[in-house]
Amino acid sequence: MTEHEGAPAGSGATINAVDIARLAGVGRAAVSNWRKRYADFPEPVAGTTSSPLFDAEQARAWLREQGKLRELPLREELWRALDVLRGSTPPGAALALFAVGLCYLRSRGGKLTEELGDEVLADDASLVEAVRERIATMRPEQVPIELPTPDRTWATLLRLLDRVADEPDVFDELVPSAVEGSARHGGSWRIPPELAELMYRLAGGTTVLDPHCHAGELLRPALRNGSEGALVAGQYPDRQAVQLVRAALWLHSEDVPRIEVGDALRADAFPGETFGSVLCVPPWGGKDWGFEELQFDPRWEYGLPPRSAPELAWVQHALSHLEREGVAVLALPVAVGTQARGRRIRAELVRRGVLRAVIALPAGAFTTSSALTVLWVLRSSAATQPGGILMADGSRARAARGPDWRAVSDLVLPAWREFDSTGECAEQPGELRVVPAIDLLDDEVNLTPARHLASAPETDVDGIRTTRDRLLDVLGQVPQHVPEVTARTEPPAPSTTVNELARIGALTLLQQSGSGSREEQEGLFTALTSRDVIQGGAPSGSWGGSGTREPVWLQPGDVVLPMLGGQLTSRVIGDEQAVLGTHLWLLRPNPEQLDPWFLAGFLRNSANATLSSGSSMSRLDVRRVELPRLPLAEQRAYAAAFQQLFRLEHGLSQAAQHGSELITAMIDGLTGNGLQPPEEAGQDGDAFGASGSARE
Question: Per residue, what are the HEC states of 500-543?
Fold first, then answer.
């Protein structure tokens, strides 16, 4: 939204046709079509003939009356309001001020709408001034934050204060993205709250330090669960990010954490101070961590960290801030425990009893990294030493859409508490074992849990039977989806193209380019990817937002297909709550003119594979796809046939998946002595089955 200088007095904020299209979730061509078709469509209040501006409230009211206004998730509304300010104020600074506004509402126990009259709320300048006056009453000495000065362009953002106060998790979700947008310090991974809680409970200290605190994720459990007045501290290199983290953590506790600016390795903000817990996800990889200037630093008690192993510098930095009985927990790439360049330091940590536990995490533990990761749990060398190291493998704890953190915690926390107090822990084959230190001190000093745990878990016979039943159930349903074959006797109908249908408003054509940076394409919103479309899976990607590109939210009835590659696959959207990922076409049919299944079926015509718009790679030009020009009633007959074929495709895919799982599980069971061959195996006289494929 923009404020136009030529708008009549009292007209308020104005929006253009693109903004209206976004509110409705359609393309700009649809808005042009509405202006021609509907006499009551709002008249422009400013702008030019080619680029008219409309009163924002009038446009919203019209869309609402027509049932075309798409209610956006609060998170997207908040991010769009921040985008309006991007030219003058970075999102991190804007969110910091917004957080102080939320703190004000929390302190008052009320809402802005209860404090301000309708006239103040309706007028942008009056609203901003009222919020500015209230924020000024907060105590700046308690939270040293340098806040920007809002002007009337902030009104859209500030009107969301009451709603976000009711849903504070929405604000918390945006903080990591804003930190990443302002900072450029590699290796800062977005930390799931469940992992932060696990690390905090492993450490168990009353005072907490995170020397690379990113968005403050590891400090929140301490603020939520710690004792009142206990010191919670952090450090981060980017000043603007620190301002935001200070304000964001103020929302979680009246005891504001002490967050300092600076690189903890080069300029430690807490020299000589010790803490009961040190929690950290340090930057991974990279060589510019201060190797040259820090070679004689007293923190390197266990050896000089190699130039290419900064993680071992962070491990020793954490140990230097531990109280005598304190615990440090660091999340590290699994390679830190295997690479030759860190072998001597690993050996010293094991030999002196400092490294107490290594815990393998499930894949995808960090939403912005695919690296396999582990937790190292360490104590000061002055603490009482147990006789070995606890190895725990939580890598198999997976849920439907990511790590099963409850299962990881249930495995790890009781085992760690028992081991930390007694030096012993009951072994669980494949998952838990106390490994004597002497067994680790070989030429490799390999600290990978899987290396030291039994690799053959017990055969899940009941699970294999369940997989077999699922396969038989799917195979039983497949025949009903196989359609009859009927020859056509009538001449083909006249054809049209997708481009022509878009021109007349029968559909809206959208796409999401892949030109953004990696940071822009990660994080804020769950996104449907090309791989999801091809494999028929749930949305698994992510989208981080951009100043120039808006997320495109999927709607029921949308038809999506990949732009790239030679495999033609289309998908009709149902109830998926996600945005459009990169390298995908999205066709949004007008339900009064075009059936989505009819459209999806004709998009799959193999002849369309030749409709390429590029010479160096296969890139489908969907605008050139042809389909018959038919009335809606006749389209639905095709749609029913296409739906049946899509169900058949899905059934065959499920059968292949369950069949593959059954084959793998049974081979593992037979070779691992958990299963015996069924009595009927080989009864037909062929030792390798009827097909003889193994023999061939």
Answer: HHHHCCCEEEEEECCCCCCCCCCCCEEEECHHHHHHCCCCCEEE
And the tokens for 49? 């003939």
Q: Is 644:591 a contact under the CB 8 Å cutoff?
A: no
Among 245, 240, 248, 114, CA closest to 168:
248
Rounded CA separation 440/674 (Å): 31
Helix (H), strand (E) at residue 357: strand 355-360
Residue 595 CB contacts under 8 Å (≥ 6 apart), including other chains: 589, 632, 635, 636, 638, 639
Instruction: Please give the pLDDT value at position 548.
Output: 43
Phi then psi for 108, rounded to 5 degrees? -90, -20
Spatial distance between the Cα atoms of 622 and 609, rounded to a whole number of angstroms:
10
Q: Would you say 258 and 233 are in contact if contact means Cβ atoms under 8 Å apart?
A: yes
Q: What is Dmax (Cα atoms) for the chain?
A: 93
| Mean pLDDT, each 10-residue run in order, the chain (696 residues) | 37 69 79 90 86 83 84 78 79 88 86 82 85 82 77 86 87 83 56 94 92 92 80 92 90 84 95 95 87 92 93 96 94 92 94 94 81 92 82 86 90 94 89 92 91 73 89 88 83 88 90 50 71 84 61 90 75 89 90 93 80 54 88 92 89 88 86 78 46 41
Q: Which of 175, 352, 376 is nearest to 280 (CA)?
A: 376
CA distances from 104 to 107, 144, 448 (A): 5, 16, 48
Both tokens of residue 62? 């019209």
Give the distance from CA 452 to its chain's centroid: 32
Question: DSSP character for 620?
Answer: B
Expressed in angstroms, the distance from the first to the final Cα of the chain is 68
C-beta of residue 531 within 8 angstroms of C-beta of residue 667: no
For residues 647 and 536, the answer to whether their CB atoms sit within 8 Å is no
Query: What span, in angstroms and rounded, lies between the C-alpha atoms of 271 and 433?
Result: 37
Sign of CA dihedral 588, 589, 595, 599: negative
* DSSP string across 59-74: HHHHHHHTT-PPPPPH
Q: What is the pLDDT of residue 108?
A: 84
How does strand 355-360 pair with strand 388-393? parallel
Distance from the Cα of residue 122 to its chain's centroid? 36
What kind and span of H or E run contains 358? Answer: strand 355-360
Question: Residue 283 corresponds to which amino acid?
Answer: P
From the CA atom positions of the chain, what is the Rg in Å?
A: 30
Q: Report the distance separating Cα 505 and Cα 34, nearest Å.
A: 9
β-bridge pairing 258-261 and 232-236: parallel
391, β-bridge pairs: 358, 433
pLDDT value for 534: 84
- Determine the Cα–Cα distance for residues 379 and 386; give it in Å rounded to an integer: 11
Q: What is the dihedral angle through the alpha carbons of 409, 414, 420, 426, rounded to the nearest 10 degrees? A: -120
H/E segment holding residue 419: helix 405-422
Backbone angles phi, psi at 27, to 5 degrees: -90, 165
List of residues 6+ apart from 264 with CB closer than 8 A: 211, 212, 235, 317
**Per-residue model confidence (pLDDT) at position 271:** 94
Whose tokens are 């070779």? That residue is: 671
The answer to whether 582 and 517 have CB atoms below 8 angstroms apart is no
**Cβ–Cβ under 8 Å, residues 449 and 335:** no
Q: How far, in Å, CA of 52 to CA of 354, rounded?
A: 68
